Amino acid sequence: MHKYQEILEARDFIMNKTAHRPTIGMILGSGLGSLAEEIVSPFKIPYHEIPHFAKSEAVGHANELVIGELKGKTVVVMKGRFHYYEGFTLDEVTFPVRVMKALGVENLIITNACGAINTSFNPGDLMLITDHINLVGTNPLIGPNHDKLGTRFPDVSEVYHQGLRHIASTVAKEQNITLQQGVYAWWSGPTYETPAEIRMIRTLGADAVGMSTVPEAIVAVHGSMKVLGISCLTNMACGILDQPLSHDEVIEVAATVREKFIKLVKESIARM
Ligand code: HPA
User: Fold this and answer.
1) How many domains does the chain contain in total?
2) Mind listing the pLDDT tens digit for each residue in 145-160?
3) Is the whole model's pTM more than 0.70, yes or no?
4) Of 96, 171, 185, 206, whose CB is crowded by the most CB atoms within 10 A?
5) What CATH number is attached to the domain comprising 14?
6) From ligand 1's centre to the CA of 177, what distance in Å?
7) Which domain of life is it from (predicted)?
Protein backbone atom coordinates (compact mmCIF):
# COMPACT_ATOMS: atom_id res chain seq x y z
CA MET A 1 0.00 0.00 0.00
CA HIS A 2 1.24 3.46 -0.88
CA LYS A 3 2.19 5.82 1.81
CA TYR A 4 -0.68 8.28 2.03
CA GLN A 5 1.87 11.06 2.10
CA GLU A 6 3.22 10.08 -1.34
CA ILE A 7 -0.25 10.33 -2.86
CA LEU A 8 -0.71 13.79 -1.38
CA GLU A 9 2.69 14.92 -2.63
CA ALA A 10 1.87 13.84 -6.19
CA ARG A 11 -1.55 15.51 -5.93
CA ASP A 12 -0.09 18.77 -4.61
CA PHE A 13 2.57 18.79 -7.34
CA ILE A 14 -0.14 18.52 -10.03
CA MET A 15 -2.47 21.05 -8.36
CA ASN A 16 0.36 23.56 -8.13
CA LYS A 17 1.05 23.21 -11.87
CA THR A 18 -2.48 23.68 -13.18
CA ALA A 19 -5.72 25.33 -12.12
CA HIS A 20 -7.76 22.49 -13.74
CA ARG A 21 -9.66 20.43 -11.14
CA PRO A 22 -10.67 17.18 -12.88
CA THR A 23 -13.68 15.10 -11.86
CA ILE A 24 -13.34 12.51 -14.63
CA GLY A 25 -10.25 10.35 -15.13
CA MET A 26 -9.27 8.25 -18.10
CA ILE A 27 -6.65 5.60 -18.71
CA LEU A 28 -5.96 5.17 -22.42
CA GLY A 29 -4.79 1.75 -23.58
CA SER A 30 -2.55 0.64 -26.45
CA GLY A 31 -3.30 2.50 -29.67
CA LEU A 32 -6.10 4.54 -28.03
CA GLY A 33 -4.03 7.53 -26.91
CA SER A 34 -5.27 9.82 -29.69
CA LEU A 35 -8.34 10.61 -27.58
CA ALA A 36 -6.04 12.86 -25.55
CA GLU A 37 -5.67 15.09 -28.63
CA GLU A 38 -9.36 16.04 -28.31
CA ILE A 39 -8.74 17.78 -25.02
CA VAL A 40 -9.21 21.54 -25.01
CA SER A 41 -6.54 23.68 -23.32
CA PRO A 42 -4.49 20.61 -22.44
CA PHE A 43 -1.87 20.77 -19.75
CA LYS A 44 0.65 17.96 -20.05
CA ILE A 45 2.87 16.52 -17.35
CA PRO A 46 5.33 13.70 -18.18
CA TYR A 47 5.04 10.90 -15.62
CA HIS A 48 8.70 11.10 -14.73
CA GLU A 49 8.22 14.64 -13.40
CA ILE A 50 5.48 13.64 -10.96
CA PRO A 51 6.73 12.67 -7.51
CA HIS A 52 6.48 8.91 -6.83
CA PHE A 53 5.18 7.99 -10.30
CA ALA A 54 6.99 5.03 -11.87
CA LYS A 55 8.70 5.41 -15.24
CA SER A 56 7.10 3.57 -18.17
CA GLU A 57 8.80 2.54 -21.39
CA ALA A 58 6.13 0.31 -23.00
CA VAL A 59 6.07 0.18 -26.79
CA GLY A 60 3.03 1.99 -28.21
CA HIS A 61 2.39 4.12 -25.15
CA ALA A 62 3.08 7.78 -24.50
CA ASN A 63 3.85 8.53 -20.91
CA GLU A 64 2.13 11.67 -19.77
CA LEU A 65 -0.79 12.98 -17.85
CA VAL A 66 -3.01 15.34 -19.86
CA ILE A 67 -5.39 17.59 -17.95
CA GLY A 68 -7.98 19.81 -19.59
CA GLU A 69 -11.55 20.16 -20.83
CA LEU A 70 -13.56 17.64 -22.80
CA LYS A 71 -17.24 18.18 -23.55
CA GLY A 72 -17.44 20.82 -20.85
CA LYS A 73 -16.01 18.50 -18.18
CA THR A 74 -12.58 18.73 -16.62
CA VAL A 75 -10.68 15.51 -17.24
CA VAL A 76 -7.33 14.00 -16.37
CA VAL A 77 -6.06 11.48 -18.87
CA MET A 78 -3.29 8.93 -18.56
CA LYS A 79 -1.76 8.62 -22.01
CA GLY A 80 -0.11 5.28 -21.46
CA ARG A 81 -0.23 3.19 -18.29
CA PHE A 82 2.05 1.09 -16.13
CA HIS A 83 1.72 -2.66 -16.72
CA TYR A 84 2.43 -5.50 -14.31
CA TYR A 85 4.31 -7.31 -17.10
CA GLU A 86 6.80 -4.46 -17.33
CA GLY A 87 7.96 -5.40 -13.85
CA PHE A 88 6.14 -2.66 -12.00
CA THR A 89 4.64 -3.58 -8.65
CA LEU A 90 0.86 -3.33 -8.41
CA ASP A 91 1.42 -0.33 -6.13
CA GLU A 92 3.22 1.36 -9.02
CA VAL A 93 0.59 0.24 -11.54
CA THR A 94 -2.23 1.71 -9.48
CA PHE A 95 -0.56 4.77 -7.91
CA PRO A 96 -1.97 7.12 -10.60
CA VAL A 97 -5.51 5.96 -9.74
CA ARG A 98 -4.91 6.96 -6.11
CA VAL A 99 -3.62 10.32 -7.27
CA MET A 100 -6.63 10.88 -9.54
CA LYS A 101 -8.91 10.15 -6.60
CA ALA A 102 -6.98 12.64 -4.48
CA LEU A 103 -7.35 15.22 -7.27
CA GLY A 104 -11.14 14.90 -7.01
CA VAL A 105 -11.88 12.35 -9.74
CA GLU A 106 -15.19 10.57 -9.18
CA ASN A 107 -15.63 8.70 -12.49
CA LEU A 108 -12.79 6.68 -14.00
CA ILE A 109 -12.89 5.45 -17.60
CA ILE A 110 -10.48 2.57 -18.08
CA THR A 111 -9.71 1.45 -21.62
CA ASN A 112 -7.55 -1.27 -23.11
CA ALA A 113 -6.76 -3.33 -26.17
CA CYS A 114 -7.56 -7.01 -25.66
CA GLY A 115 -8.20 -10.32 -27.37
CA ALA A 116 -11.73 -11.56 -28.11
CA ILE A 117 -12.67 -14.98 -26.76
CA ASN A 118 -16.40 -14.82 -27.45
CA THR A 119 -16.67 -15.96 -31.08
CA SER A 120 -19.64 -13.67 -31.77
CA PHE A 121 -17.22 -10.72 -31.41
CA ASN A 122 -15.08 -9.32 -34.24
CA PRO A 123 -11.67 -7.65 -34.27
CA GLY A 124 -12.27 -3.91 -34.28
CA ASP A 125 -15.38 -4.16 -32.06
CA LEU A 126 -15.60 -2.20 -28.83
CA MET A 127 -16.71 -4.01 -25.66
CA LEU A 128 -18.27 -2.63 -22.52
CA ILE A 129 -16.74 -4.47 -19.58
CA THR A 130 -19.53 -5.84 -17.39
CA ASP A 131 -17.32 -7.68 -14.90
CA HIS A 132 -13.85 -9.15 -14.61
CA ILE A 133 -11.96 -12.26 -13.61
CA ASN A 134 -8.61 -11.87 -11.92
CA LEU A 135 -6.43 -14.72 -13.21
CA VAL A 136 -3.14 -13.30 -12.04
CA GLY A 137 -3.19 -14.62 -8.49
CA THR A 138 -2.32 -11.35 -6.84
CA ASN A 139 -4.29 -8.26 -5.89
CA PRO A 140 -3.29 -4.58 -5.71
CA LEU A 141 -4.85 -4.29 -2.24
CA ILE A 142 -2.61 -6.94 -0.65
CA GLY A 143 -0.73 -5.35 2.22
CA PRO A 144 -1.71 -3.15 5.15
CA ASN A 145 -4.96 -1.29 4.49
CA HIS A 146 -4.99 2.47 4.77
CA ASP A 147 -8.45 3.27 6.10
CA LYS A 148 -8.31 6.80 4.65
CA LEU A 149 -8.13 5.24 1.16
CA GLY A 150 -10.81 2.58 1.51
CA THR A 151 -12.12 -0.37 3.45
CA ARG A 152 -10.15 -3.59 4.17
CA PHE A 153 -12.57 -5.93 2.39
CA PRO A 154 -14.16 -4.05 -0.50
CA ASP A 155 -17.37 -5.28 -2.09
CA VAL A 156 -16.77 -6.02 -5.77
CA SER A 157 -20.27 -7.04 -6.80
CA GLU A 158 -20.42 -4.05 -9.19
CA VAL A 159 -16.92 -2.95 -10.15
CA TYR A 160 -18.14 -1.53 -13.46
CA HIS A 161 -20.82 0.95 -12.47
CA GLN A 162 -24.27 0.15 -13.80
CA GLY A 163 -25.21 3.79 -14.31
CA LEU A 164 -22.08 4.49 -16.37
CA ARG A 165 -22.61 1.30 -18.38
CA HIS A 166 -26.13 2.48 -19.13
CA ILE A 167 -24.81 5.83 -20.37
CA ALA A 168 -22.25 4.16 -22.66
CA SER A 169 -24.68 1.65 -24.12
CA THR A 170 -27.28 4.39 -24.72
CA VAL A 171 -24.70 6.53 -26.51
CA ALA A 172 -23.56 3.55 -28.59
CA LYS A 173 -27.13 2.85 -29.72
CA GLU A 174 -27.74 6.48 -30.63
CA GLN A 175 -24.50 6.71 -32.58
CA ASN A 176 -24.90 3.34 -34.30
CA ILE A 177 -21.73 2.03 -32.75
CA THR A 178 -21.52 -1.72 -32.15
CA LEU A 179 -20.78 -2.09 -28.45
CA GLN A 180 -20.38 -5.68 -27.30
CA GLN A 181 -20.66 -6.48 -23.60
CA GLY A 182 -18.70 -9.00 -21.65
CA VAL A 183 -16.40 -10.23 -18.94
CA TYR A 184 -12.71 -9.29 -19.12
CA ALA A 185 -10.08 -11.67 -17.79
CA TRP A 186 -6.75 -10.28 -16.61
CA TRP A 187 -3.72 -12.21 -17.85
CA SER A 188 -0.31 -11.09 -16.61
CA GLY A 189 1.48 -11.31 -19.96
CA PRO A 190 3.84 -10.46 -21.53
CA THR A 191 3.22 -13.67 -23.46
CA TYR A 192 -0.13 -13.86 -25.14
CA GLU A 193 -2.13 -16.94 -24.10
CA THR A 194 -1.70 -20.42 -25.52
CA PRO A 195 -4.67 -22.02 -27.30
CA ALA A 196 -5.15 -24.32 -24.29
CA GLU A 197 -5.14 -21.32 -21.96
CA ILE A 198 -7.78 -19.62 -24.09
CA ARG A 199 -9.96 -22.75 -23.90
CA MET A 200 -9.54 -22.64 -20.12
CA ILE A 201 -10.32 -18.92 -19.89
CA ARG A 202 -13.44 -19.34 -22.05
CA THR A 203 -14.60 -22.20 -19.81
CA LEU A 204 -14.13 -19.93 -16.79
CA GLY A 205 -16.61 -17.46 -18.28
CA ALA A 206 -14.57 -14.68 -19.88
CA ASP A 207 -15.43 -13.00 -23.18
CA ALA A 208 -12.14 -11.19 -23.60
CA VAL A 209 -8.61 -11.32 -22.24
CA GLY A 210 -5.96 -8.69 -21.73
CA MET A 211 -2.99 -7.58 -19.66
CA SER A 212 -4.29 -4.55 -17.74
CA THR A 213 -7.35 -2.78 -16.32
CA VAL A 214 -8.22 -5.13 -13.44
CA PRO A 215 -5.70 -3.76 -10.91
CA GLU A 216 -6.69 -0.17 -11.69
CA ALA A 217 -10.40 -1.03 -11.46
CA ILE A 218 -9.93 -2.74 -8.09
CA VAL A 219 -8.11 0.27 -6.67
CA ALA A 220 -10.72 2.65 -8.08
CA VAL A 221 -13.50 0.69 -6.37
CA HIS A 222 -11.49 0.60 -3.15
CA GLY A 223 -11.45 4.40 -3.40
CA SER A 224 -15.23 4.54 -4.04
CA MET A 225 -14.80 5.74 -7.63
CA LYS A 226 -17.27 4.79 -10.35
CA VAL A 227 -15.62 2.79 -13.13
CA LEU A 228 -16.48 2.55 -16.81
CA GLY A 229 -14.44 -0.10 -18.67
CA ILE A 230 -14.18 -0.06 -22.45
CA SER A 231 -12.12 -2.59 -24.39
CA CYS A 232 -11.03 -2.51 -27.99
CA LEU A 233 -11.07 -6.10 -29.26
CA THR A 234 -8.00 -5.99 -31.48
CA ASN A 235 -7.81 -9.68 -32.37
CA MET A 236 -9.47 -13.01 -31.85
CA ALA A 237 -7.67 -14.69 -28.94
CA CYS A 238 -5.01 -17.26 -29.65
CA GLY A 239 -6.22 -20.51 -31.19
CA ILE A 240 -9.62 -19.19 -32.29
CA LEU A 241 -8.27 -18.42 -35.76
CA ASP A 242 -5.36 -20.36 -37.14
CA GLN A 243 -2.92 -17.45 -37.05
CA PRO A 244 -0.26 -16.09 -34.70
CA LEU A 245 -0.76 -12.87 -32.72
CA SER A 246 1.43 -9.81 -33.01
CA HIS A 247 1.69 -6.56 -31.10
CA ASP A 248 1.84 -4.67 -34.41
CA GLU A 249 -1.58 -6.06 -35.31
CA VAL A 250 -2.93 -5.01 -31.90
CA ILE A 251 -1.74 -1.42 -32.40
CA GLU A 252 -2.95 -1.33 -36.03
CA VAL A 253 -6.47 -2.52 -35.22
CA ALA A 254 -6.73 -0.24 -32.19
CA ALA A 255 -5.92 2.69 -34.50
CA THR A 256 -8.81 1.75 -36.83
CA VAL A 257 -11.40 2.15 -34.03
CA ARG A 258 -10.18 5.69 -33.32
CA GLU A 259 -13.23 7.53 -34.63
CA LYS A 260 -15.97 5.46 -32.98
CA PHE A 261 -13.99 5.08 -29.77
CA ILE A 262 -13.56 8.87 -29.48
CA LYS A 263 -17.25 9.47 -30.29
CA LEU A 264 -18.40 6.93 -27.70
CA VAL A 265 -16.17 8.18 -24.92
CA LYS A 266 -16.71 11.89 -25.57
CA GLU A 267 -20.48 11.64 -25.65
CA SER A 268 -20.48 9.42 -22.57
CA ILE A 269 -18.40 12.01 -20.74
CA ALA A 270 -20.90 14.71 -21.73
CA ARG A 271 -23.61 12.74 -19.90
CA MET A 272 -21.67 11.93 -16.73
N1 HPA B 1 -4.37 -11.41 -25.23
C2 HPA B 1 -3.93 -10.63 -24.22
N3 HPA B 1 -3.76 -9.33 -24.33
C4 HPA B 1 -4.06 -8.75 -25.50
C5 HPA B 1 -4.53 -9.50 -26.59
C6 HPA B 1 -4.69 -10.91 -26.44
O7 HPA B 1 -5.12 -11.63 -27.37
N8 HPA B 1 -4.74 -8.61 -27.61
C9 HPA B 1 -4.40 -7.39 -27.14
N10 HPA B 1 -4.00 -7.47 -25.86
Assistant:
1) 1
2) 999 999 999 999 999 9
3) yes
4) 185
5) 3.40.50.1580
6) 22
7) Bacteria
